[in-house]
Specification:
With 179 residues, the protein is an alpha/beta fold. The protein has one domain: Leucine Aminopeptidase, subunit E, domain 1, CATH 3.40.220.10. Helices cover 42% and strands 18% of the residues. The chain is built from six helices and six strands, in the order H-E-E-H-H-E-E-H-E-H-E-H. Strands 1-6-5-2-4-3 form a six-stranded mixed beta sheet, with helices on both faces. Strand 3 and strand 4 form a beta hairpin. Helix 2 crosses helix 3 and helix 4 packs parallel to helix 5. The longest helix has 18 residues. It is globular, with a radius of gyration of 15 Å. Bound molecules: ligand AR6.
């Protein structure tokens, strides 16, 4: 069970993830790492699409639930960790485990690269259709469990796009902390 000290290293924010000055922002990518819409499109535009696409091409794609790193190019963030969330079907096709794996693997990649501050978007909750509350619960729990084990990650920010998602996420955070 994560302690209060762990929750103090987790923050929920409303805003545009491309603007955060953290060591790494996480991208909700597709398995070809080809760029796309949503947060992926916003990150590619803000980082510099040509350079980021060239860096992504060298990575040879990414499995669902896995994560890979590139430089952040024109972003304030020095790095981008690209992870691929599951497409939600009915929750019975490994989606919860794969979504938790996105958060864990992204944080493992951060540790491997000696990064201390990481920001996540709400992976899979847009085009990939994951129900928001369920996804946010999984995200917060996965991060808290990880931070419990790895002291080197100082701060994890969850960035929600729009007030509605932000308010819903703060409620999920309260519920998960109280579990
Ligand atoms: N900052 C923070 N969050 C954002 C931003 C932003 N600038 N823009 C959107 N969001 P989605 P997915 C939120 O669809 O469901 C792409 O085409 C958005 O409100 O970006 O994992 C990829 O290439 C939502 O809550 O990602 C894949 O093909 C969340 O980001 C596919 O979409 C995730 O929505 C991935 O789908």
């Amino acid at each position: 069970m994560p302690t209060l000290r762990v929750w103090a290293r987790i923050e929920v924010l409303e805003g545009d993830i491309t603007r955060l000055p953290v060591d790494a922002i996480v991208n909700a990518a597709n398995s070809r790492l080809a760029g796309g819409g949503g947060v992926d499109g916003a990150i590619h535009r803000a980082a510099g699409a040509a350079e980021l696409q060239a860096a992504c091409r060298k990575l040879g794609g990414c499995d669902t639930g896995d994560a890979k790193i590139t430089p952040g190019f024109n972003l304030h963030a020095r790095h981008i960790i690209h992870t691929v969330g599951p497409v939600y079907r009915d929750g019975q096709h490994g989606e919860p485990e794969l979504l938790a794996s996105c958060y864990r693997r992204s944080l493992e990649v951060a540790v491997e690269n000696r990064l201390k501050t990481v920001a996540f978007p709400a992976i899979s909750t847009g085009v990939y259709g994951y129900p928001f509350e369920q996804a946010t619960k999984i995200a917060l729990r996965a991060a808290a469990d990880f931070l419990d084990q790895y002291e080197t990650i100082e701060h994890v920010t969850f960035v929600f796009f729009g007030e509605q998602d932000y308010v819903a996420a703060t409620k999920v955070l309260e519920a998960v902390r109280g579990d």
